[in-house]
């Protein structure tokens, strides 16, 4: 774990074009439009003060119970267990499902590092799959990765767009695999008009500061399986047993969320629809304005999906647009517009490089080279979106 890994220089040069350059320096003298900003203008302050005044600031208290209940309702799940991060929600799901040493779990290579790490912590191996046209795990390439060691699939609803759940569940049933959905970026997203919490062994969310709902740091494990919910609740609380105090029958973790964080969470859940809709409204405004810009691809929405556009991503075709993704980022940074590059695929991460050496995933790689997201805050105004789009058009014309 402490060992720092690196990609050998010679290998790095071969893949360098797919690795984003350094972050551009933002012009912060004048305009500044951040990629994301939490909206804390509801009952957040009131509930946090109330929690402080009640002295219930640790991991018990009314806000935790209320937050879990209200969040479960919103995502269509029967049980919700609040934890201290999205990473640990996934880790908890892996542990609670008994996935362990030498087991294999299939994930998209195009994802955030936590998806892979949650599997690696207990000695299991993430097995990688490329993306499809929606930037999601390519479901048609999952079966060829299944071996006798495969125990689960961990699909990720990237940037708020649902994966094709029916197809994944069919594969899972055929090979008797568990399914843990990483919905860290997909609060409020739907599959065939149903909320994402209804299907799968577990669905995990993040409440990091830039997610659609936030608690500062935090996460939620949800399931419809009562027994699994009880195991998860026990494991996240260092496996304190009910029968005696200081009596531990499992190797538990401390993944507990505080009542203070849950107070923020409850206030956020009260604005759930508003926050989700704001991201969709942003996306519609961006798409209308960027529709005809040659060389810019905007996100697609599959017929089965309600995309919540956690981040509004675009893919820049260097030749058609007339400027590379990294040059466009510099151009926008000069105008006070913050952007972020897409994920660096797992197989190109220094920590994982050796493990997947020689494996190539062309779609994920091209997204890593050409993809970026634009300011996507729920607080973004239409005139800010117009400012961003005009800057992109100006870059195209220069
Ligand atoms: C944010 C994120 C996580 C991790 O959540 P944290 O709360 O930051 O630990 C996991 N998976 C994906 C896809 C994410 O975007």
Provide a descriptive summary of the structure in words.
- The chain is built from 13 helices and 14 strands.
- It has 398 residues and is an alpha/beta fold.
- The protein is 35% helix and 13% strand.
- α3 packs parallel to α8 and α9 runs parallel beside α13.
- The termini are far apart.
- The chain is globular, with a radius of gyration of 21 Å.
- The mean pLDDT is 97.
- The chain folds into 2 domains: 155 residues, Alpha-Beta Complex (Aspartate Aminotransferase, domain 1), CATH 3.90.1150; 226 residues, Type I PLP-dependent aspartate aminotransferase-like (Major domain) (Aspartate Aminotransferase, domain 2, 3-Layer(aba) Sandwich).
- Strands 1-9-8-5-4-2-3 form a 7-stranded mixed β-sheet, with helices on both faces. Strands 10-12-14-13 form a 4-stranded antiparallel β-sheet. It has a 3-stranded antiparallel β-sheet with strand order 7-6-11, with no helix packed on it.
How would you summarize this macromolecular structure in one to three sentences?
This protein is of the alpha/beta class. It is 35% helix and 13% strand. It is globular.
